[in-house]
Amino acid sequence: METMSPIERVLRALALTLVVVFFMFPIFWIFLMSFQTNETILAIPPSIVFSPTLSNYAALITGKLQTAAGTLDIAFMRNLGNSIFLSTASVAVALVLGVPAAYAFARHKFKGSEDIAFTLLSFRFAPPLLVLLPLTQYFQWLGLSNTYFGLIWVYQLICLPLILWIVRGYFEDISADVEYAYRIAGHSWFATFRKIALPLAGPGIAAAGLLAFIFAWNNFVFALVLASADKQPVTVGALAFITSSGIQYGQIASAIVLSVTPTLALALYAQRYLVEGLSLGAVKG
Amino acid sequence: MTDTALLIRDVDKFYGPVDYGVHAVKKLNMDVRKGEIIALLGSSGCGKTSTLRMIAGFEAVSRGTISLGGREVQTFAPVRRNVAMAFEGYSLYPPLTVRENIAFALKASKLSQSVVDDKVAGIAKLLEIEDILGRYPSSISGGQQQRASLGRALIRDASLHLLDEPMGQLEPQLRAVLRGRIKHYIKERELTAILVTHDQTEANALADRIAVMEGGVLQQFDTPQKIKERPANLFTGTFVGEPPMNVFEASITGSEAKVSFGLKDGVRLEYPASDFSHAVRDALMKRQKVVLGIRPYAVRRSADGVSGRVAVNQWLGDQTHIAADFAGGTMVLVEHDRTELAVGQPIGIRLDPSSLHVFDGDSGKAISHGVELA
């Protein structure tokens, strides 16, 4: 690395701090908001000195939302459960279908294989709303509206192309000869897939899975249209905080904190594997 | 039948659609006996690696049959062929140490741990990799990885060992030592091996027979000595041998008394008819255009020879390479003593009829080697 003059170093640190503050401040503020009542949040000027309250979290967890107009029932914890279930199940299905497909696309080039892979990617080109109209119709005919099965199926539009394309790249990077070496030592192609290809592409699969999870978690419009209250994820459920007697900022903030936690935990957990993957990736053929 | 390890019959390999794709291997026929070491020799893209991979089962055979130990295997998965292979790109398993990589090849054989340990120790000693057995592939050099990969292939008790450029990454001294040891190892265990190489020294040193390939076609399949002394065609003649064979296009005229080759620039080589057998003379007289070939170490200097002019004179420490302008081309001579010849100096060159190789001018097929028919 080049040596920097002290002034450059200070400026660099300053610039970095600015960027960090810019991106982290909203999250920090929301975290503070989640421990405040609507009154202190809306106080002018805002203050970071306040007496913290757990009432927001209590309301979310008990499902009783206190408003000026009375007590409302909200299903936040159920929404959170739905989000976790829908995202996990969607990613699991996408991994089971997508990873072998990615392997097939990476290793067996056949006439039209590129076209098929491209078609799968093209699912992501159209705006979701465009797909939604016909989908709503079909789902009603098929009786799939407002079912977990139907939602997980639709979520494959989000997860499957992502996993397929990312993981395919990782499989292509593995030298085919490493697999041949294993096969010639007396193993079937399926054993080779499990014992050589999967572990070597592991970090890529983890990264793709994590990304697909985040996309599925953040999806709003599919669930809004295709699911009713008891199947809705948090992204849709958060609409309940806009009540007739005002917006419940404190509860929205705590809801955000709660709904970010699972994704954050997963990302931190997966990070270990991602880093491990980088060091393994340094091995050449 | 029992002593045939490998039988290749009329094998074609196309990349892409059969008959329309790239024709990488053309109508290949080969027999390998048990206990033989075969070298597939050729330049890049000649089809030698495709051939090896078809034998291993990594490439589909477009046409023809491959038999191992009397069974046709061209449709079998690699796992059912019982062959071992060392890959040019090493292809060690990254998460395993060198020791585990080598021992891994024995897993399917269900040997006891102590036998496996002994075998690994033996092969590690042979390949001089004992000190890196505990290391991971990512932390050792290319040459060490190559030896580990070679060890992983040689340790197996397979019916055929395929070695793809097994020593390309090794230092010259180590290569020379290992060649001898590996040959001994293979012969002692009566293994059958096919190695792919573009290094003719390696092919000569290791192989019982060499298969020279070019453009997907097997040019010649014979012992190293035969390939050197009796090349089947112009390609083999010029490809094998270092420095390469000198070649000159020539037209033939002859009479009862003499045979005369007309080269470029009006150079004429005349030999009494008695220098050649009847059969050779008849064969030569049927043709007008031929190519004359002579090995650099067979060219002699002589005061009454055809005149040439020294262009380059290099003493290589143990031999002299002289390049002379001759008949519109270059004639290379190898001599074992240091020769004081200035550049530009005229020399007389004599081409002994007994060391002349004559090839057909159109097909490149050999007509005669010295005084005998090809």
Describe what is shown at a glance.
The complex is a heterodimer of chains A (285) and B (374). Chain A is mainly alpha-helical and 285 residues long.
List the strand order in the largest sheet of chain A.
1-2
Indicate the overall shape of chain B: globular
Q: What fold name goes in the CATH topology slot of the largest domain in chain B?
A: Rossmann fold
Global mean pLDDT of chain B: 92
| CATH class descriptor of the largest domain in chain B | Alpha Beta
* CATH fold label of the largest domain in chain A: MetI-like fold
Based on secondary structure, the structural category of chain B is alpha+beta
How far apart the termini of chain A lie comes to 29 Å
The arrangement of helices and strands of chain B along the chain is EEEHEEEHHHEHEHEEHHEEEHEEEEEEEE
Estimated helix fraction of chain B: 10-25%
Helical run tally of chain A: 12
- CATH superfamily (homologous) name of the largest domain in chain B: P-loop containing nucleotide triphosphate hydrolases
Major β-sheet annotation of chain A = 2 strands, antiparallel
Strand content of chain A: under 5%
Return the CATH architecture of the largest domain in chain B.
3-Layer(aba) Sandwich
* Subunit arrangement of the protein: heterodimer
Q: Unreliable runs of chain A, pLDDT <50, ≥5 residues? A: 278-285
CATH class division of the largest domain in chain A: Mainly Alpha
Task: Explain the overall architecture.
The complex is a heterodimer of chains A (285) and B (374). Chain A has twelve helices and four strands. By secondary structure, chain A is mainly alpha-helical. Chain A has two domains: 68 residues, no CATH class; 206 residues, MetI-like fold (Orthogonal Bundle), CATH 1.10.3720.10. Chain A has a two-stranded antiparallel ribbon with strand order 1-2. Chain A has a two-stranded antiparallel sheet with strand order 3-4. In chain A, helix 4 runs antiparallel to helix 9 and helix 9 packs antiparallel against helix 12. The longest helix of chain A has 33 residues. Chain B has 374 residues and is an alpha+beta fold. Helix content of chain B is 24%, strand content 36%. Chain B has nine helices and 21 strands. In chain B, the strands form four sheets. In chain B, strands 13-12-11-14-19-20-21 form a seven-stranded antiparallel sheet. In chain B, helix 3 crosses helix 4. Chain B is globular. In chain B, 39% of the residues are buried. The interface between A and B is medium-sized, with 21 and 29 residues.
